[in-house]
From TrEMBL:
Keywords from the UniProt entry: Acyltransferase, Transferase
Domain Malonyl-CoA:ACP transacylase (MAT): from-to ranges: 14-314
Enzyme class: transferase
SMART domains cross-referenced by the UniProt entry: PKS_AT
Protein name: [acyl-carrier-protein] S-malonyltransferase
Entry EC number(s): 2.3.1.39
GO biological process: fatty acid biosynthetic process
């Protein structure tokens, strides 16, 4: 069967951040793919629990940042490794670009093969620990605003700057996320309503990628600088958020600054489109990114992998439709 000319073998892989985690996430891979057991055995060893406990720790524990981040990172690392391996075995040559939303950056570093899982899992566990500690310092939250009016959102945030209210995420042309102290976010929502802009609180207990993460930044930066083994700068196949591109020369600063700097999925997808990507694969426990890509590039093909069944469907589609080089 002749293969169609789908984006000339270029695939944009998008890794989810924290938020869609759930109990037993990745267990189907662990039970059916013996070659990936290393990832989960390494994670269990780092957390000082058994592999059985990894998939049975309860929803409350899974939702704790300390556990959620390494669990999601491990799942995404497993899926991306299997994706590359299966496409290679099928003879399908692919040029990968990747972008990681928040925590997903670390999964991009694995896919890029610029850093080792055994090294990064330690880093991710510490990242989750410091971010969870920062979340407990005051009552904080985030909210999605359904608008493209950046100046208006920035102005509203400036009114509550003392409560550390700030833009955290540019997700799509139709959504901007803000974060800060809970009282400020709630006041901002009322103000947006008066301005005719819809908004809604997110089910989170932290204001990630805002100044309220400054203490996490300080602790994480000290930890990274104390490490004996230095991490590597990723290749240009990894799309980096605009707010942290100035730190590309120093990996420790890049990773620590990312905790408190805003993300820009919208710009990252456009950067991939400029590179010729027209097929996107979202990897993560849920599908938060796909709907944003649909808004950014309605004509692109968007696949998602959140379990073994969707992985198999994705592999089938790619092997049948990606043009060989």
């Amino acid at each position: 069967m002749k293969k169609s000319n789908i984006d000339k073998g270029k695939i944009g892989v998008l890794f989810d951040g924290q938020g869609g985690q759930h109990m037993a996430m990745g267990q189907d891979f662990f039970n059916n793919c013996p070659n990936i057991s290393y990832f989960y055995e390494t994670l269990a060893n780092k957390l000082k629990i058994s592999t059985e406990e990894l998939f049975n720790m309860g929803e409350e524990k899974v939702n704790e940042t300390y556990y959620a981040q390494p669990l999601i990172f491990t799942f995404e690392s497993v899926v991306s490794s299997c994706l590359k391996e299966d496409l290679s075995k099928s003879g399908t040559e692919v040029e990968f670009y990747s972008y990681g939303f928040s925590l997903g950056l670390y999964s991009s570093l694995i896919m890029d093969e610029s850093n080792d899982f055994n090294e990064l899992i330690d880093v991710v566990i510490h990242r989750g620990q410091y971010m969870e500690e920062a979340c407990k310092k005051c009552e904080q939250t985030m909210a999605a605003t359904f608008t493209s009016e950046v100046p208006i959102v920035e102005y509203v945030c400036s009114l509550f700057s003392k409560e550390e209210l700030a833009i955290a995420n540019f997700n799509s042309p139709k959504q901007i996320v803000i974060g800060g102290k809970k009282v400020a976010v709630e006041k901002a929502i009322k103000l947006f309503e008066c301005l005719g802009i819809k908004s809604s609180l997110l089910n989170v207990q932290g204001a990630f990628h805002t100044p309220l993460m400054n203490t996490a930044f300080d602790s994480f930066q000290r930890y990274l600088r104390s490490r004996t083994n230095k991490l590597n700068i990723p290749s240009d196949k990894v799309i980096i958020d605009e707010a942290i591109k100035d730190y590309m020369g120093e990996i420790n600063d890049l990773l620590s600054e990312q905790i408190r700097k805003r993300t820009n999925l919208n710009m990252a997808v456009h950067e991939m489109l400029e590179k010729g990507v027209r097929t996107f694969v979202e990897i993560g426990p849920s599908r938060p990114i796909s709907r944003f890509v649909e808004q950014i590039s309605p004509s692109s093909r968007i696949l998602s992998i959140n379990d073994l069944a969707s992985f198999n469907s994705c592999i089938k589609y790619l092997t049948e439709n990606i043009t060989e080089k």
